[in-house]
């Protein structure tokens, strides 16, 4: 295999499509959002490209005993409610810095092949604490785009995210701008500790307005409920531990007394 | 030396051979199996290729003072009881992700040179606990092959191995499928903590049926007995420690009493 | 994007310019100095080149929601008080060893394009303790240059810095000398624990004399005062802790008494 | 700078020279030996080549304020007492696996340029304890050479060194053999914890006999005496600590009593 290979799985007619990227990252927000999109628009979607690269981990995934080489996938979506989409997903990020640059360049080549001009990269931004209201933070390559995204509910904050945006989601903006793409990153706030379907929903609701989409959220809400249960149990355990530690003397107490 | 060099050590007549790979990994199952195969079929085996690569660790092994550069070896085996074999072994895996891709491609080139169409990669799958009955888990590139392997005793499980298959064993399936090879991975269950000759035997018994082989296991069973002794001693020590800790007060107890 | 790309942002007329480098490093001395230089000579400065590289971290920085791809910047400065300058700054160093060599070569190419012969790399040298008097340690490629720098207040010490100079600051001398540049590194002493504007000022004062510059230091002194406040608070806290530990018996004391 | 560059510093007439390598490693045995060799044969030595590489750490060393780019050096030695030598030394090893292969290939190219057929790589083999009698362990590419080295006092042991030989010292044998060189590695036993001039002397005494050399050891013995003093002080401190811990009750004792 060459360093990078793009398999043409199928061809598809898409009209002025928007590239939407959701690869693994903080809170799995990007992948959850992209996969939910494909699930909801299943009948309008066609897998058109697979991208293989030596920069991906050297492994196969196994489903029902069948091995599939690690890759990124691009689906074409004929969107009945708005602009057509190219949806980029996958199970892995590149494993080296240079690999992120190489893969992003390949993704932009495919976007260019389909005459895409607009890009949305989806992800999470870690806050370090559990979230009540899920804000969506934005970053853009072109100042002009900020207003319309603010109308769609995106917040632009002076110094956030403080560490910038790392990986393909960031480079789609950084390398994209250099090649003339108009790119935006939508980042759902998330604790950073847990897979976060609610944050993915917040991001998708912005996307619905930005590109014209009409999504149902039943399956994503179900996953969110499951996560709520998990969080509830963790909090319960923590409270019990705190109570116990207030009631009983600790080893250290005993040692001082001893 | 170039990035990768293949030395032609000898030529060999093999008829429609199957590539069998056993490189270092979990429980050394793959290497134990491949080396036992070569030991048992010593008279029918010829070392035909050595593969050197900058991706291997930069070192020589020393035996009786003689230095040998790290490499992978391929033996041709004229199998009197079934299909001829190419057996791929070695002491090391590649040291980088890209190296795994590069080496696997080189191994597939050699397989193609000998008009191989079928591949078996051998390895172990860690269970985290000591094994009583050694199941062999399978993964294939072509669904059609699953049935015949199930008849040979291989189990195919819905989500196993959960983390996929990493390294050359995985990529022989992943890259192999892309080049038209029909590949299967046979993974013996193993604790993951110890070198496991019993798991290697379980894997070889499947291979015996799959490609037609008639192997003796005396030397492998001997090594298994030695490992049993080791395990027995470890368990004894653990039991003694547990008894002692039940009979005697510990430091912590004393501190509480103090 | 290629492995390395240089964007021509603007052209500038500079006469026999000196390259001054200040990239991130110990105490941020180099970046503080280079950025202060550009701030003070703002009206005489033009951003002329941006250097992008796969060796930089794969990320964008965000300011007011606008994404900028990680890069190094080169400004041309028409210096009214002495020699013209090319000032090299940036937020990141290369992430691999080979990357440092590649980026430094690219920087030297740009220096050569503007017919630069002299280079100053600016940085900090860690002492491990808080500094009262900020000495500036020097290293040069050409012994002849040592005398004039000593006159400007630079100290040359027999075995310092003991570990040599690592990164672009070092390689501008090492690779620069091989290409015929006359390069010097000016290293301000700094504790190594804190961002150090005072050390940056010490380095700039040497540079003022070496290339002919007339800088105000108000903004840098302000930042130094802020850092003094931080240091003062840390020392206060440490003293309080020491006093407490002298007055009160510790855990260990209590245990012996127990 | 290219990935690897060889500077021709001077030319030298050498007759059928032996390549002797001493780069940093266990106990600094190799570098100590090679540097002592050059010191003792100073008048017969000429620096002929410098090898620069992106695989070396990106740094300059500073001596009296003068910067020198990290490199490996090759001196030609006109040996009045035996075979002429090429002595390879340096302050650094390559920083990646592939780098070791690349640098060793470059060193072998230089050896070939001077029509060298024989190679000695010098190093240390760690024993984990302080050494009384310094044995020298050997490894060779050609069995025939073992006898003559055994006569010179080298020991060949069945399974040593167990982990093989890593880095340039190993690859000079591994890659050297593939290119027709006759190479041997001489490894002085050393604790592995300290710089070990005595081990370097043991290795050099073998080399004296192997290639015909007549070396004085005053300066190396002096360094060995200095190290002995250091070891003596460490041992004294350890004994005092042991005595104290025998005489005084420890924290743990007191806690039990408490």
TrEMBL record, chains A, B, C, D:
Per its UniProt record, what PANTHER family does this chain match?
3-ISOPROPYLMALATE DEHYDRATASE, 3-ISOPROPYLMALATE DEHYDRATASE-RELATED
Taxonomy, superkingdom = Archaea
From the UniProt entry, list the residue stretches annotated as the region Disordered.
239-258
- InterPro entries linked: MJ1210-like, Proteasome_assmbl_chaperone_2, PSMG2_sf
Protein name (record): Proteasome assembly chaperone family protein
Q: Pfam families of this UniProt entry?
A: PAC2
